[in-house]
Amino acid sequence: MNQPELIQNAWALTEAIEEAVSQEDWARATGLAQARAPLVMALQAEQPADALAVIRKIQASIDAVAARAQSAQAALSATYRRSMDGAKAASQYHRAARF
């Protein structure tokens, strides 16, 4: 695969990743990112200006998706902690009610 094809395929996967993330389909986004990784790693340093613009867009998307994933993880962790606290409180109530 030549460099323009690599860039085109990496960009297509990037768009698909962004779509998956917008739908909060993190499993699909992960699979697409894994498919994109070898393409990005195969890019050569010397590129024409138009190719560099696409590569910069890919890099910006990677950063934005990583930030969104971190926020989603924090939200899920907070929800999990609240759920566990609620379960613990209910369990304590049941133990107290038996006495």
Secondary-structure map:
Blueprint: H1 3-22, H2 26-41, H3 49-98
Helix pairs in contact: 1-2, 1-3
Structure summary:
One of its GO terms (biological process) is bacterial-type flagellum organization. The protein has 99 residues and is mainly alpha-helical.
Your description of this structure?
This protein is mostly helical and 99 residues long. It has one domain. Helices cover 87% and strands 0% of the residues. The protein has three helices and no strands. Helix 1 (3-22) packs antiparallel against helix 2 and helix 1 packs parallel to helix 3. The protein is rod-shaped, with a radius of gyration of 21 Å. The mean pLDDT is 94. It holds the Pfam family FliT. One of its GO terms (biological process) is bacterial-type flagellum organization.
